[in-house]
Amino acid sequence: MGSLNLKSIRKAFGNHEVLKGIDLEVKDGEFVIFVGPSGCGKSTLLRVIAGLEDATSGSVQIDGQEVITTPPAKRGIAMVFQSYALYPHLTVKDNMGLGLKQMGAPKAEVDAKVAKASNMLSLEPYLARRPAELSGGQRQRVAIGRAIVREPKLFLFDEPLSNLDAALRVNTRLEIARLHRSLKATMIYVTHDQVEAMTLADKIVVLNAGQIEQVGSPMELYNKPANTFVAGFIGSPQMNFIEAGKLGDTEAKTIGIRPEHITLSRESGDWKGKVIHVEHLGADTILYLETEVTGLLTVRLFGEHKYEVDDVVYSTPNKAAMHRFGADDRVLR
Amino acid sequence: MSKARISPLRSSFVHLALAGYTVVALFPVVLTILNSLKDKNAIFRTPLQPPTAETFSLIGYTTVLKQGDFIGYFQNSLIVTVISIFFALLFGAMAAFALSEYRFRGNTLMGLYLAIGIMIPIRLGTVAILQGMVATGLVNTLTALILVYTAQGLPLAIFILSEFMRTVSDDLKNAGRIDGLSEYAIFFRLVLPLVRPAMATVAVFTMIPIWNDLWFPLILAPGEATKTVTLGSQVFIGQFVTNWNAVLAALSLAIFPVLILYVIFSRQLIRGITAGAVK
To answer: How many domains does chain A fold into?
Structure first.
């Protein structure tokens, strides 16, 4: 009851093309995340799906029905905004019920649905308050509640956690994951934070400069990035990119190796180098090395390690976890 | 919230300056009111003296209330001012919403065109306006004044309100669209309440020139039935003899309605500022 089909969506503002032909299929009940750097067109794509922006060309189908000319309210969607976008003059209860009221639902039904949603999000104590009397996290929960009340075919989230502080972000992330499990609804979520993408998504869509770079499950993107952009975008700290020539590989242009796939030793190894900076995070230790063969190299070790700046170390990559990219930046298989 | 500490010397200087300005601003008003309560001799002999038991006289007020239909003049002024402000705010806000919300060809040009009225006084068009009013048979009606003043108030209203409307969050309007609010509902129920402080500002700036205007009432509606207060007071100013008691009394009376309107709007203004923000 909530599939989405995008066919060659294009969007241009004047001469500037923001979306350059997006094709995407989202199955019912999937949690899909659009991720990409700022300006990649992910929010615009979400707005096109919502009907808040008109696509220059292309087709949007929700549940197999063409909706490109349908106004947002009739598309069967609900949206949660980064800035919450609550109606400042309405109480929490009225904020949540407005959409249904506009559709002409009877009052009893509106009340029942608002009660159910506020129960799910533990918002009952705040129903009579106005948005100005709530904290940021509570406001975002109200915004999510407003979406739930509409019982949409499609939930759209536009960077919903960006305005929350770190601790609340984790809590709200959990809440959204739980919500997806219990509602079994189709959700489309935009973020620039790859941690959110990796932790929440069934399917991640990596966008760059108005085009889809790769679509896949979080682990697919992590283990089998299709090109250097995805390889660099997914995973933190970023994957190391080494000129293939330096390693004697003439076929590939770039070799990628994730920081966690390199082991260190003080005695022997493939690449000799010097430590230039160490970050101790407790669970991880992140070292930045200047090696003779590869230049700057980031290494991630699990647990605590006593390396210091200017220590001489030998690093050895796990050959099986290396990624080889050709001259067009695409992976060589 | 803790207040930054200001040295008492500095704050007393600030207060001195503000008090000085207040005195300068209030002086003519107070002088007018004081003198309106004195007899004619006292006005000229001791213009700065407050009315004493000897010089106190209400002759000005009785003349004003006896001569002509002063209550009627007040009524005309109020009707014209209130209705003009209403229309200037309504149409100004609607135009401002369209200019700030929708992308269409010629948007910027349209905005400029509508703002030109701020720089070019409407009085330059008096002859054409008069001809138009004569042709439509609107001379000597309050409608004529309302139309002219609405037009006069629009440029500033559009200019200020469109700037403010740009600051209303797009997400909020989009949330309204998804919830099925029409564009009118978004305008009246979401945007207008949020720009209320700006509306109050515009109302005050629009109101005062309308209330004080002598030009258009004199030209478009000089008839007894449509006289405004400002025009009505002119009967006491003659070429050779001026009834100063009456003029001062009329002016004093004319202050109060506009003062009341101002208080209403300025309270709105403060309430608008202190109401909870969007985020």
So the answer is: 2
